[in-house]
Amino acid sequence: MSTYDTITCDIAMDLAPLYVLGALEAQEAAQVRRHLATCKQTHDEFAELGGVVPYLADAIEPVEPPAELKQRVLAAVRADIRAATRDDRAAERLVSSLGVAPTPRALPPARRPDAPALGLTTDLDEPHVPGTQQSASTSATAPAASGSTGFRSMWQPAMTAAAVVLAVTLGALNFGLQRDASAARERAALLRDAVVASTAADASVARIAGSEQAPSASGFAVLPPSGPGYLVISGLAPAPSGKTYQAWYLGADAPRSAGLVQVEPDGLAVLTGLTTAADLKGMGLTVETAGGALQPTMPIVAAGELAPRA
Amino acid sequence: VAEGDAAALATLYDRYSTLAYAVSLKITRDATLAQDIVQEAFLGVWRNAGRYAAGRGSVRTWVLAIAHHRAIDAIRRRRPTSELPEGDAPPLVVPDIWHEVSGRLDREEIRQALETLSPPQREAIELAYYSGLTQQEIAEKTATPLGTVKSRVRLGLLAMRRALEQPMAMTSDGTPTEMGT
Fold first, then answer.
1. β-pairing, A218-223 with A243-251?
2. Would you call A158 an interface residue with chain B, using a CB distance cutoff of 8 Å?
3. Torsions phi, psi of B170, nearest 5?
4. Quick one: which of A14, A270, B69, B129 could link to B91 by a disulfide (CB 3.0–4.6 Å)?
5. Do residues A205 and A198 touch, judged by C-beta distance below 8 A?
């Protein structure tokens, strides 16, 4: 059990520089991860030191991979998509897509598909970001999740990751998968489109943050110079009865409505069809009477300022 | 939907495969292995694109973190002396500073930022990031106590951060004092 020994905040801070560079031995790195997942402190030093790390890659001379690699990657993706439609990985994928950032307070921790202790195979590729609001919510739920499911490798060796997810999902969810798989799949596709759009060099991007009214809300808006823009916000509570969320274009003049925003039971809202304008400064979200309003009712529950994407 | 997904991934591939491949190749020095890593990294991106949406950093840093993690994982597995990485270990931290530092820095500016570090600081960071050495291996290779390795890396990363945040100040500090090349 020594692998799962806990470490103190001081030791975690001491190990931070080597952790962010990937220079710890596996056991120490695991201790740090476990500490970050359970610690109440924000541990900003990980973001402070680690923020530099991606830029180390930019000092490397670029090397084009062989042209056939692209075809290989795309063929692998297509095979993955085909497989997803016929075996239980579809369930796993759907759950991952649905679980963008569930509101921890509203949902039992064990159903969080991105809780590290569930040991999903897909967690391999989930970047861990300490010191952000998202990680704070992870911290809040991870211990409970590990308590209820245990570490897969130790306690559930025979259960595949997908089976674990499915069991947890069916036990704790009453939406999405069972109710309307095609809608969930559509939303996952929409999210992917939004993510891709956010990487375009000429798109304007706003980081959306929640105000006091919606402290766990976060997300982004992306507005390409042409084509549809997207607003993606996670961590939203359901709109109160008789109310709706409404998105607004914020600019030099009075705010203009960008449309009503439907929040799914997992706290995620995706709005598409946004259009950019020359004087557009940012995007905001308010709570309005069902049907929407012509002008936003204060306070703004989440907002972000647009910046050109370099 | 399937074709749309593949097209979306193709876009991401066009934007980031060169960087991901360069990192993988630098660390593994093995073209075949590096290609496998890039393929795995993009598959991972596709499988998790939905979860990225919480806005945890740029897609670019995300792709890079996955590629770097997989590359050091691969070379450590080939070293009999090194402890095997955990099979389900998530990749390294991808902190969220792209809005501060943004992607506007070019290679020369990054290299200049690296140049502001003391040679021992730079060496420790390069051995860790570009060669995938663990802290013990860095300590052995440089004949330095572990505690010194840690503080060099810490101070080096902080110095680099300062340099990246103030590229203009860096030019006035660094360029005039340059001696030769």
1. unpaired
2. no
3. -65, -40
4. B69
5. yes
Is B1's Cβ below 8 Å from some Cβ in A? Answer: yes
Sequence-ordered alpha helix ranges (H) in A150-237: 152-155, 161-172, 181-198
Which contiguous run of DSSP H or E holds residue A273?
A: strand A269-274
Q: Which residue of A has its CA nearest to B155?
A: A17
SS3 sequence, B28-89?
A: HCCHHHHHHHHHHHHHHHHHHHHHHCCCCCCHHHHHHHHHHHHHHHHHHHHCCCCCCCCCCC
Instruction: Give me the residue from A21, A59, A96 closest to B111, CB to CB.
Output: A59
- State if pTM tops 0.80: no
Whole-number Å distance between alpha carbons of A91 and A111: 13
Per-residue pLDDT of chain A (310 residues; tens, 9 = 90+): 444 567 899 999 999 999 999 999 888 888 888 888 888 888 888 888 888 888 898 889 889 999 999 999 988 888 776 665 554 444 444 445 444 333 222 222 332 333 332 222 233 333 333 333 333 333 333 333 333 332 222 222 222 222 222 222 222 232 333 345 666 667 777 777 777 777 777 778 888 888 888 888 888 888 888 888 999 888 889 899 899 999 999 987 888 999 999 888 878 888 988 988 888 889 999 999 988 888 898 888 999 888 765 4
Residues A135 and A1: their CA atoms lie apart, in Å, by 26
Cis peptide before A299 (omega within 30 of 0): yes
Residue identified by tokens 């360029």 is: B175
Distances (CA, A) of B24 to A45, A161, B6, B67, B141: 26, 27, 23, 6, 22
Backbone angles phi, psi at A122, to 5 degrees: -70, -15
